[in-house]
Every structure is written in C-alpha cells, then in structure tokens.
C-alpha cells in the first residue's frame, strides 16, 4: 500500500492551478499533437528528405542546414519573434517584440491579438488552452518555413553565413508575413484568407529561397549538370514524414479539435494524393517513365496548394485543387524553367520556387474561388467571407488573395536581399572553391557514408583525394 503522505489529494490534483475551468483538455491535447506533427516535418522529415535528395558529397551539409535552422529559430521565437508575429501592433504589418518565456505569460489561457474587421466584428479567436501551447505550435511553423527556404541554397551556401541568416530572416521577414496575415495585421483585417500557411509559410519560403539563390549564386557547374540523389529510399522516408505531418499542419489551425479540423485533414490528403497521381501521369505521358522524385514533388505541391484553404473548401474543390497543383507547378518546373532565362540563371537546388511559391500562390488564388461561406463561418469571424463561385463578393475576395500574394512576395524579395547584402559585408555567402569541390568533409570534417562499408573516410589534400595515405591525383 502506498504511503498516504505521498498521495496527492484528488481535490488538489483537479484544482484550478493544474486544470483551470477554461482549459479544454481535448483541444489542448490535439494542439500539442499537431505541434509535434508539424515539428516532425522539419526534424526529422525535411532533414532526411534533403539528405537523401542531394548528391552524396552534400548529404551531411544539407541535413545540417535543416537541423540548425530548426534549432536556431527557437531562442529567437521565445525571446522576441513570437510577439513580433502575434503580439501587439507596432506597425500595420508588424508586431512589437517581447519575451514569451515567463510563467505569467505562458500558463494563462492563450489569446490572439484583439482585432476588428469592418463593422466592428471581433475577428480574433480565443483558444481553450495555455499560451505555452500556442507558442510551441507557431514555433513549429516558423522553423519549417526557414528549412523549406534552405532547399533553394543547398550545395554552395557557407554554413557560417546560414547561421547568421536564420535569426535575421525570422526576425525581419517571417514575422512580418505572420503578423500581417495571422496576427491581426492589415492583410488579416482586409480579409485575406490563409487557413494554414500557404502564404505565410510556403509562398514566403519560395520567394525568399529564390531570392537568396540569386544572391548566393549557383552551384559548381559540374553539380548543376549532374546532381543524382544519393539515397532515394531515405528521401521517401522524409517525404512520408512530411506528408503525414501535414495532418497537424492543417488540422491544428482551427485551434480546436472541432469539425473544421476534421474537414481540413481530409481535404489535405485528398489534394496531396490527387496531385501526386496527376504529376506522375504527366511524367509518364511526356517522359515515358514514372519518376519517384516527381511523385515526391507532386505530393508536396498538393500539400502546399490545399494549405490556404484546407478547412474552407469542400471535398470536390480539394480534388480540383489537386489536379491543378499536379499540373501547373509541373509545367513551370519541367517545361517553363527550361525556357525562361531567369529561371535558368538562378540555381534553385530543389525547385522550392515551383513547389512552394507557385503552388502557394495557386492555392491562395483557388481559395479565393472555392472558399464556401458556410465553412468560412466555422473558421473566420469575418462577415460574408466566400469564394467567387458562391456570390458577387467572391470576385473581390479573389482579387484580395492575389494582392496578398503580391505583398508576401515583395516583402520577402526585399527583406531577404537586404539581409544577405548585410551578411556579405561580414562573411562570404558562398563556400570557398575547395569546399565546393569537396563538399561535406571540407565543410564539416565529416562524411555521410563510409567507403565500401569498411569504415574508411575519404580525406583530401590540396591536389587530390587521399586514400590510405596514398595521394590520388585529380583527373
């Protein structure tokens, strides 16, 4: 029998200090699970997806860029960036910086900024769980965004420059988009719809990644000409974590375990599966073979496209959006990118521009067409929200969606450019020629795989590769 002195009285265990009256345990549990699912999309999902998709010599460097980004966002988030994204207004597009680490702030009920839409209708939502849950959930989104951006820069960006870039970009770029669209900023008050990050996460990472790729410059020509994935099975594992993790990415954004969350989850998987199948069909039709990498790209574009409207559109619309997301980004990546000089010049390593910027813009625009007024009323406390297919005001909504996309693109292009130009004054943005030639071993002193399973590591001299103490001249 337990020592009675060690038994906590039932009245104390259920007191308001641990389970206050306002706490909904189901909502809190779902939100924490959703946050974990989103976090797993970044670590380990994108970490191992990147490690598998790149050339062998860049496997560790690519994985480390993602891993570092996931970790570096956290202190920035709780020390100043969360409140810049979801705090009190400083500017129409930016919140005031502040700490989100004190017990007095994290334990009470979560509150989003009190904002007003036209007519004085309160548009903020009051979740039924602690602020700590909200801070962690939104951190996972910010971390995934910067990791997605890294996909454009793999294979040449200096790791030291990346270490400076991450906190600066989260501070001066991500927080602006998050506050403008989600935190009560001018796009939110104007009625721009972004259910779960089609603009804040995907369009931002695609636009910023493409811009950063321009300033950092391309990979070595030999890497651009030949860049075979070193482990497609590993990449598929990462892609699977990314796909299933999207259940929390979109399912957690009603901030409750409610009907809209269920609809958002189902629509997410409808669109992703449809997009993957359509992309694969285009590959077979034009290239005569189904591509595993193509299937991964189609999956991602479907997930991105549905994100702005996951809980706002009906199931048939999710199916249509999947067809569109498996077709339009496929065309821009597989055809248009080979014709436009700008797309040929800028070396976007993993095609983040197509899979996230194009698909994110497409999803936002289609949300402006297909958002159902009844579903909008479940999620948005904004009067008369509807897509163009459901009323006269829907045409205005479609134009608002395009205008919102233009702001996100414009801000990320300008802010990312300024950040990189400032960093360039301190340290080079690119690795040295020797590091570009060698890869992981030069950048980190480590390699992803042992040679021939014997445990040896390749080492390098200035003139060539050295194996077992014998220098091999480079051809």
From TrEMBL:
<feature type="domain" description="Ammonium transporter AmtB-like">
    <location>
        <begin position="29"/>
        <end position="449"/>
    </location>
</feature>
<feature type="transmembrane region" description="Helical">
    <location>
        <begin position="402"/>
        <end position="427"/>
    </location>
</feature>
<feature type="transmembrane region" description="Helical">
    <location>
        <begin position="357"/>
        <end position="382"/>
    </location>
</feature>
<feature type="transmembrane region" description="Helical">
    <location>
        <begin position="261"/>
        <end position="285"/>
    </location>
</feature>
<dbReference type="InterPro" id="IPR024041">
    <property type="entry name" value="NH4_transpt_AmtB-like_dom"/>
</dbReference>
<dbReference type="GO" id="GO:0005886">
    <property type="term" value="C:plasma membrane"/>
</dbReference>
<keyword id="KW-1133">Transmembrane helix</keyword>
<feature type="transmembrane region" description="Helical">
    <location>
        <begin position="136"/>
        <end position="155"/>
    </location>
</feature>
<keyword id="KW-0924">Ammonia transport</keyword>
<dbReference type="InterPro" id="IPR001905">
    <property type="entry name" value="Ammonium_transpt"/>
</dbReference>
<feature type="transmembrane region" description="Helical">
    <location>
        <begin position="29"/>
        <end position="51"/>
    </location>
</feature>
<feature type="transmembrane region" description="Helical">
    <location>
        <begin position="63"/>
        <end position="82"/>
    </location>
</feature>
<keyword id="KW-0812">Transmembrane</keyword>
<keyword id="KW-0813">Transport</keyword>
<keyword id="KW-0472">Membrane</keyword>
<feature type="transmembrane region" description="Helical">
    <location>
        <begin position="292"/>
        <end position="310"/>
    </location>
</feature>
<dbReference type="GO" id="GO:0008519">
    <property type="term" value="F:ammonium channel activity"/>
</dbReference>
<comment type="similarity">
    <text>Belongs to the ammonia transporter channel (TC 1.A.11.2) family.</text>
</comment>
<dbReference type="InterPro" id="IPR002229">
    <property type="entry name" value="RhesusRHD"/>
</dbReference>
<feature type="transmembrane region" description="Helical">
    <location>
        <begin position="162"/>
        <end position="187"/>
    </location>
</feature>
<protein>
    <recommendedName>
        <fullName>Ammonium transporter</fullName>
    </recommendedName>
</protein>
<feature type="transmembrane region" description="Helical">
    <location>
        <begin position="199"/>
        <end position="217"/>
    </location>
</feature>
<dbReference type="Pfam" id="PF00909">
    <property type="entry name" value="Ammonium_transp"/>
</dbReference>
<feature type="transmembrane region" description="Helical">
    <location>
        <begin position="316"/>
        <end position="336"/>
    </location>
</feature>
<dbReference type="InterPro" id="IPR029020">
    <property type="entry name" value="Ammonium/urea_transptr"/>
</dbReference>
<dbReference type="InterPro" id="IPR018047">
    <property type="entry name" value="Ammonium_transpt_CS"/>
</dbReference>
<feature type="transmembrane region" description="Helical">
    <location>
        <begin position="229"/>
        <end position="249"/>
    </location>
</feature>
């Amino acid at each position: 029998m337990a020592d009675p002195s060690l038994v906590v009285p039932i009245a104390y265990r259920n007191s308001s200090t641990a389970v206050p009256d306002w706490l909904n345990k189901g909502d809190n549990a779902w939100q924490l699970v959703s946050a974990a699912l989103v976090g797993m999309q970044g670590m380990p999902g994108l970490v191992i997806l990147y490690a598998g998709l790149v050339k062998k010599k860049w496997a560790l460097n690519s994985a480390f860029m993602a891993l570092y980004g996931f970790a570096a966002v956290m202190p920035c988030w709780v020390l100043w960036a969360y409140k810049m994204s979801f705090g009190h207004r400083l500017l129409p597009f930016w919140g005031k910086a502040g700490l989100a680490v004190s017990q007095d702030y994290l334990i009470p009920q979560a509150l989003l900024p009190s904002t007003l839409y036209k007519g004085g209708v309160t548009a903020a939502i009051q979740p039924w769980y602690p602020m700590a849950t909200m801070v962690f959930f939104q951190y996972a989104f910010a971390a995934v965004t910067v990791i997605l951006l890294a996909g454009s820069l793999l294979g040449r960006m200096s790791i030291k420059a990346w270490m400076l870039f991450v906190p600066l970009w989260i501070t001066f770029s991500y927080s602006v988009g998050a506050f403008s669209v989600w935190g009560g900023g001018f796009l939110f008050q104007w009625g721009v719809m972004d259910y779960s990050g089609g603009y804040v996460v995907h369009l931002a990472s695609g636009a910023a990644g493409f811009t950063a790729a321009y300033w950092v410059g391309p990979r070595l020509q030999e890497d651009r000409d030949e860049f075979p994935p070193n482990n497609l099975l590993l990449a598929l594992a990462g892609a699977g974590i990314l796909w299933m993790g999207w259940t929390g990415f979109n399912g957690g954004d009603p901030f409750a375990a409610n009907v809209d969350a269920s609809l958002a989850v189902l629509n997410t998987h409808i669109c992703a599966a449809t997009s993957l199948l359509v992309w694969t069909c285009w590959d077979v039709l034009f290239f005569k073979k189904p591509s595993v990498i193509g299937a991964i790209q189609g999956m991602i574009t479907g997930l991105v496209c549905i994100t702005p409207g996951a809980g706002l559109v009906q199931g048939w619309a999710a199916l249509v959006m999947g067809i569109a997301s498996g077709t339009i980004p496929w065309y821009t990546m597989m055809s248009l990118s080979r014709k436009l000089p700008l797309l040929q010049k800028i070396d976007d390593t993993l095609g983040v521009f197509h899979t996230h910027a194009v698909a994110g813009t497409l999803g936002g625009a289609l949300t402006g067409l297909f958002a159902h007024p009844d579903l909008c009323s479940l999620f948005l406390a904004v009067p008369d929200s509807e897509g163009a297919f459901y009323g006269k005001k829907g045409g205005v909504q479609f134009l608002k969606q395009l205008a919102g996309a233009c702001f996100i693109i414009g801000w990320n292009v300008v802010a990312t450019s300024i950040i990189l130009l400032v960093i360039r004054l301190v340290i080079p943005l690119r690795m040295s020629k020797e590091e570009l030639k060698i890869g992981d071993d030069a950048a980190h002193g480590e390699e992803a795989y042992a040679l021939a399973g014997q445990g040896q590591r390749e080492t390098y001299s200035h003139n060539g590769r050295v194996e077992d103490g014998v220098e091999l001249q480079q051809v």
